[in-house]
């Protein structure tokens, strides 16, 4: 590591403090070697943007406040603007900024109530976690230390029982919980931790090994650096519950070959044995039994839905409730018959649900077997649609009753291949059984990316950009159902062999 001037390293922001609580090494790297940070995935960028959007909505709890700008504004200017606004008699501030003993904090909402100043921290979560209390406690420490007495501290989070009906009702969307007592009890802990972090930052990089804290409470963005020497065939490849992988690692058991097989359940034992022997396992009788549960006409169905959206998009929907905007439907009227394809993708940001379900129930005959991959999810979406559109209740119930799950033979390991690495996800199964079909190099390659692409398509002003994204979405969803068709064909071939 290049020589670094550590004389000013003790200055900590609230986010840096929370990072340090999770792992001192992560804070050290952030301060001194940020170039080692992992590239931020689009999914995490989207979560960050979601948090910003939720924070702006929460301003409606106390409308008319003064916002302290932070983009392109120095910390000292933010603090000065906050001080001036308070002295001028502002009753509500957004992003108010304070510093105390080399610790900087911004308050989402600061409101002067009847009993004095109240601190509101806004989260996109649906409840309170320990990390949230630590977050608010660190702000409480800074604001009180800077001379602003905080009478009450609140954690504002999403109320996922709220159902939208018309314009968003901000006071129903959010729940504000008084955590003042918990925050006050945390003050000695905050002081102690700040002292510990500053002492750590004056020394060499902490010799902290990997652990559970690499992913909790947040995924660490230095994981790539810290995990670089962990081999691909490590114990962390092991799927399923019942085995503490970090406990094995701390006992010196690093690779799959070193795991005592007696501690594994049947599925884990098969995963390890198959990987080490590079073998494939086929239970033909079980696969035949599954295939015999299907009938014609046979329809292969896949939905794409919104993902992790805290602000309900349409009437009748709740926070974080998935809303379908797309489906793909491949159809075989008889065995060996011609494969046909239907698809739907909402054209814009208007509510897609009514047109989607109207098309779907018209395209799926009442007597059809409907094959999906992960029946639990597809049935959930269909039941949402049934609740939203009672007019189609009988038709939707018929589809739900006729659902069959192509995931079952892989979930139950009736077919298992060492390259599946313990997974039965379609994204693993398809390239193993049908290598000529692949999600590699596709612009959209999973459900989260599909949801993000849909919103990008809706927001795009350029017609060519809209069409490009639309084509990528149709290609992705279409591959999901075409892949199911080819997987079923391969299962039938395995049974004939």
CA radius of gyration is 27 Å
Shape: globular
Classify the oligomer. Answer: single chain
Beta-strand fraction estimate:
15-25%
Output the CATH class name of the largest domain: Alpha Beta
Question: Number of domains in the coordinates?
Answer: 2
Which stretches of 5+ consecutive residues score pLDDT under 50?
A: none
CATH architecture of the largest domain: 2-Layer Sandwich
Percent helix among the residues? 40-55%
Q: Report how far the terminal alpha carbons are from each other.
A: 59 Å
Helical segment tally?
A: 19
List the helices and strands and how they pair.
Elements: E1 12-13, H1 14-22, H2 24-32, H3 42-58, E2 66-67, H4 75-87, E3 92-100, E4 103-113, E5 116-122, H5 130-145, E6 150-158, H6 170-173, E7 174-178, H7 180-185, H8 187-201, H9 223-226, H10 245-250, H11 266-277, E8 280-282, H12 284-292, E9 298-305, E10 324-332, E11 339-345, H13 353-363, E12 369-372, H14 375-388, H15 393-401, E13 403-405, H16 408-411, E14 415-417, H17 426-433, H18 447-459, H19 463-496
Parallel strand pairs: 1-4, 2-3, 5-6, 9-12, 12-13
Antiparallel strand pairs: 3-4, 4-5, 6-7, 8-14, 9-10, 10-11
Helix pairs in contact: 1-2, 1-5, 12-19, 14-15, 17-19, 18-19
């Amino acid at each position: 590591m290049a020589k670094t001037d550590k004389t000013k390293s003790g200055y900590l922001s609230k986010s840096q403090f929370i990072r340090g609580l999770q792992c001192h090494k992560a804070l050290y790297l952030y301060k001194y070697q940020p170039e080692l940070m992992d590239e931020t995935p689009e999914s995490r960028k989207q979560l960050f943007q979601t948090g910003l959007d939720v924070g702006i909505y929460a301003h409606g709890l106390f409308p008319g406040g003064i916002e302290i700008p932070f983009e392109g504004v120095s910390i000292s200017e933010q603090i000065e603007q906050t001080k001036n606004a308070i002295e001028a008699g502002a009753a509500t501030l957004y992003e108010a900024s304070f510093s105390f003993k080399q610790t900087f904090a911004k308050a989402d909402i600061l409101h002067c109530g009847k009993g004095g100043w109240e601190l509101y921290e806004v989260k996109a979560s649906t409840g309170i976690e320990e990390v949230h209390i630590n977050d608010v406690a660190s702000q409480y420490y800074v604001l009180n230390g800077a001379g602003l007495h905080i009478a009450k501290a609140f954690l504002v989070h999403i109320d996922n029982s709220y159902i939208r009906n018309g314009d968003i009702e901000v006071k129903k969307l959010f729940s504000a919980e008084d955590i003042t007592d918990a925050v006050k009890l945390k003050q000695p802990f905050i002081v102690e931790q700040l002292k510990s972090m500053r002492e750590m930052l004056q020394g060499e990089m902490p010799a902290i090994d990997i652990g559970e804290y690499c992913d909790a409470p947040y995924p660490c963005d230095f994981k790539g650096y810290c995990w670089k020497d962990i081999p691909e065939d490590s114990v962390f490849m092991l799927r399923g519950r019942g085995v503490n992988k970090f406990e094995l690692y701390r006992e010196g058991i690093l690779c799959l070959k070193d795991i005592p097989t007696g501690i594994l359940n049947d599925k884990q034992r098969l995963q390890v044995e198959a990987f080490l022997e590079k073998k494939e396992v086929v239970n033909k009788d079980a696969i035949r039994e599954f295939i015999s549960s299907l009938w014609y006409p046979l329809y292969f169905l896949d939905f794409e839905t919104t993902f992790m959206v805290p602000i309900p998009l349409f009437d009748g929907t709740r926070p974080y409730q998935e809303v379908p905007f797309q489906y793909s439907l491949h159809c075989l009227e008889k065995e060996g018959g011609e494969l046909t394809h239907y698809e739907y993708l909402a054209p814009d940001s208007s509510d897609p649900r009514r047109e989607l379900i109207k098309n779907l129930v018209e395209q799926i005959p009442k007597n059809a077997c409907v094959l999906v991959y992960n029946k639990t999810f597809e049935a959930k979406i269909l039941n949402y649609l049934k609740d939203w559109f009672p007019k189609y209740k009988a038709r939707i119930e018929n589809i739900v009753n006729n659902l069959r799950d192509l995931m079952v033979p892989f979930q139950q390991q009736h077919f298992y291949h060492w390259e599946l690495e313990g997974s039965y996800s379609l994204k693993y199964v398809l390239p193993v059984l049908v290598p000529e079909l692949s999600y590699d190099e596709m612009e959209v390659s999973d459900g989260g990316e599909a949801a993000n692409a849909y919103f990008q398509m809706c927001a795009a002003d350029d017609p060519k950009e809209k069409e490009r994204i639309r084509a990528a979405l149709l290609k992705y969803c279409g591959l999901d159902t075409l892949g199911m068709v080819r997987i079923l064909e391969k299962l039938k071939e395995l049974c004939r062999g």
